[in-house]
Design goal:
heterodimer; A: about 100 residues; flat; B: about 600 residues; two-stranded antiparallel sheet; 22 helices
Chain lengths: ~100, ~600
Amino acid sequence: MESKPPNQDTSAGWFEQKENIRRVLLGLFAGCALLIGIDVAYWISGYDKHPYFKWETWPGFYAVYGFVACVVLVLASKLVLRPLVMRDEQYYDSRKKGGHDV
Amino acid sequence: MMFEGLPPAAIYLLGALLVSLLRGRARQVVALAVPVAAFINFFLITEGVHWTLPFLDFELILGRADRWSLIFLNIFTILSFIGILYVIKDNRAIDLAAGLLYAGSAMGVIMAGDLITLFLFWEMLTLGAVLCILARGTPESGKAAYRYLMVHVFGGVVLLAGLFIHLANGGSVAFDQIELAGLGAWLIFLGFGINCAWPVLGAWLTDTYPEASFGGVVFMATYTTKTAVYVLARCFPGESTLIWIGLAMATIPLFYAAIANDLRRILAYCLINQVGFMVISVGLGTELSLNGTAAHAYCHLLYKALLFMAIGSVIYRTGKSKATELGGLYRSMPWTCLFCCIGAISISFPFFCGFVSKSIIMSSAASAGQSAVWLALLFASAGVFLQAGLRVPFFAFFSHDAGIRCEEAPRNQLLAMGITAILCVVIGTFPQAFLYKMLPNPEATYQPYTVAHVTDQYALLFFSALAFVLLIRSGLHPAEIRSTNLDTDWVYRRGGRVIYAFFDILLNGLNRVAKAAFVDTFIKRLSRFLQHGPARLLVMIQYPFWSLSGLEGEALKDKRADFYEQTRLGAFPIGLTAFLAVLLLAILFIF
C-alpha cells in the first residue's frame, strides 16, 4: 500500500453522495426507533431490568437522557463557554505587550 | 530459588540507553526487543516483594508484585510494544529512547514498594514526556516542552515537600494507604493530582498533548495520568474528596472539547473525562469500584492509544490535525479511518472494551447510592461519545472533502493500530476471559452483559448520535473555528505577563518616586547645604566679631560677601589655612 501513489480522484466519494448519506441517516433513525420500541416492550411486558434507580425503568429514559445531554452539552459550550474563553488563535504567540511567553 | 525476572524498569532503561547509542537496523531491533523481553519477563514475576536495595537508612523496594501492580504492568508492557512499533519506521533515536524511558519510569512507579522509589521514577516520567514533546521538533513544541517541564517540576516539588513532611512527622515510607490528614498527606495528594490532571491543576495536559510528536503522544496518553490514577488508588482509596474531583474531571472538559478545533486537543479533553471516571471509582473505594478503576485504566489505555495513533497517522501523512483543515480522508486512508472508528466505538459500545470497564464504575456508583454521581456519569458517557467518538472521526475522515489526497499510513503504524483494535474487540466481547481475571479484587464479580444493559446503552449512544446529526444538519452545532480557548494554563502563559506588568508599574513607579525624592531633590539640597552651609555658619560666627570691631554699613557687607565666597570655595589665605590645620592637629593631639 505504500508503493501506490496517492489517490488523485476528486469525484464525489461514497460518503459524499446524497443517496448514501440518506441511507446512513435512515439506518440511524431506524435504529433509534427500534431501540425505543424495545424499551417500550420491556415496559409493557414488565420485564425486570434489575434497575438501580426507578427512572431506569421509564420507557425511553436512556434515549431521552442521551439526546438531551448532547444537545445541552453542545449548546452550552457554544452559547456560554465559547463567548467567555475564545480568543484569537495566536493569542499566546503575540508579543505586542512585551515580555517573554513560553 | 526460582528466577523472579528482572525489574521491568531496568530492562527499559537499559534499552533506552542502548537505542540512543546504536544506529540503523540494530537500533530498531533492540527497540522492539525491549518490550518483547519485558513481556516474557512479566510472566516470570511472581506475587511478592522482589529486588530490594539498601539506601541510607531505608530499603528501596523495586518490585512489589500484587494484583494491583501486575494488571497495570501488563497493560503498560503491551502498550510500550504498540507505541514502539508505531514509531519504529522513522528510526529516530529520540522517539525510541523517549518511549522506552517513559515506559520504564512508569513501570518503576507501578512496581515501587516505597515512597522514595516512587518519587525517583515519578520524576523520570517527566523526562520521558518532555522528550516526547521535543521529538516533534517545531518551535511550538519546544515551548510546550518547557511549559510541561515547569508544571511537572512544580508538581514534583510539591510531592517531595509532602514526602519530607510526611516522613518527618513519623509517617511510614511504605507506598501504601495514607490517611488524608495533615500538610504532608495533602501535599502528596496534590502532587499526585497535578499528574492526574485535576481541575485547575490539569491544564498542562490539553495545552501540551496537541504539541507532542505524532507518536510521542501515544506514550504520554498512556503513562502519566494512569500512573497517577494507580498511586491514588494505592494511597487514597475511598477518599470521598476524589468523587467530587473526578466528577468535575468527567464533565467540565467535555464543554471545552465541544469548542476545540485541534483533534488531538479534543482527545486530550476526553482523556481527562475518562480519567475522571477512574478518579471517582477510587473515591468510592468499594471492592467493585476499585476493580472498575483498574479495568477502566486497562481498556481506556487501549482505545485512547488507538484514537491518538489514528490521528497521529493523519498528522504523519498530512501534517494537519485541525478540524478546520481536515475532512474526507476516508478515501485516502481507509484503514486508518476504520481503526479510528473502532477506537471511537470502543469508548462505550457493547462488545468493545470501554463498555465492560465503564459499566463497572457506573454500577458501583449506583450500588453506593450515589444517584447524582450516576446521572453525571451518564451525561459524561453520552458526551464523551459525542466528542471523541463522533466528532473526531467525522471531522478527520468524513465531513466535507478538504481535498487532501495522501498515502495510507505506513505498514508499521497500521499494524500497531490493528493489534490495538483487535485487543479492544476481544476484551470487550470476552471480558471474563482474561481482563476480569486480572482485577485487584477477584471476589467482587461483575456481569456487564445483560439484555437490558446492552439495549439501554445502545439507546443512549444512538440518541447521542441522533442529537449530533440533527445539530449538524440544523446548523446549531458550533462551527469549527480556529481559536485559542482560555483555560487555567493562562496563569503561567499569560499570567506571567500580568505579573510582569504589575511589577513593571509597581517597581518602576517606586523607582520614579525614589528618583524624584532622592536624586532630584535630596541630593541637590544636600550638595547645596554642603557648599553653602559651612560658609553661612562661619559667617554667622564671624558676624558679631566684625560688628564689634567697628565695621559698619557697606564695609561690613563687603567683608561678609568676601568671607562667604572664600569659605564656600575653601580659598582661605595660606596663613589662615595653616592656622586652622595646626588648630585641628592640636585638637587631635589633646584628645
